[in-house]
Design goal:
Largest sheet: none
Distance between the termini: 38 Å
Radius of gyration: 19 Å
Strand content: under 5%
Number of helices: 11
Length: 210
């Protein structure tokens, strides 16, 4: 309201994108879409490149959340082109990760691996370590889905090591669960149970009841 009263378009665009994100987090998707589309319209009108890329990124996340995977890919790819042109390496890594996850849901694991590898290289280059862990996890999950359990374990062990280094209990729990899945695929049930037990202990520690 203040931004509108002052005709401060940049602040208005930022506020609309923030509202869109907030509604996305509380799963009020129609309101999230409404605010992000308004942000996109204004950002495009006033040539606010950053505002456009943020709105598109948000719309990609919302589309994914409501199961609209083709629009999610379209929004993410359009945003990716923009952040590449502005040399926003962190934004690029985030969007590559979003695309990797979306293609994973569509079972296009070749694309998941391709985008995750690109994401991993950027994360390592800029020291975006938490995101690096996500990329390693996505790579491992893709190889598990393809039945290449040895390769999957290699990536999940890297994710586990990194998560311990940066003290990410969520990342550590994910890596342990994914290792359990890979060993389950290998029918090494003793190792699978071992990793699931370790995961369970961490999930209880951080209060992740789900």
């Amino acid at each position: 309201e203040i931004a509108q009263a002052n005709h401060d378009q940049q602040s208005e665009i930022k506020a609309l994108n923030n509202l869109g994100q907030a509604y996305y987090f509380v799963r009020e998707y129609p309101k999230a879409i409404e605010n992000c589309e308004r942000a996109l319209f204004l950002a495009d009108k006033h040539q606010d490149v950053h505002g456009v890329s943020v709105a598109l990124t948000n719309l990609g996340l919302i589309s994914y959340a409501i199961g609209e995977f083709k629009p999610a890919i379209h929004y993410s790819k359009t945003a990716l082109d923009i952040v590449k042109s502005t040399k926003d390496r962190e934004g690029e890594a985030t969007l590559l990760g979003n695309l990797a996850v979306t293609y994973g849901v569509l079972r296009n694991y070749k694309k998941t691996i391709e985008y995750s590898q690109e994401q991993l290289e950027i994360d390592q280059e800029i020291g975006f370590r938490k995101d690096e862990g996500n990329a390693l996890g996505n790579l491992g999950n893709a190889y598990t889905a393809l039945g290449n359990y040895t390769k999957a374990i290699e990536y999940h062990l890297k994710q586990l090591k990194l998560s311990k280094e940066i003290k990410s209990f969520q990342g550590e729990g994910n890596a342990l669960g994914n290792l359990g899945n890979a060993y389950d695929g290998l029918k090494d049930y003793s190792m699978a149970v071992n990793y699931y037990q370790q995961q369970l202990a961490i999930l209880r520690k951080i209060g992740d009841r789900r």
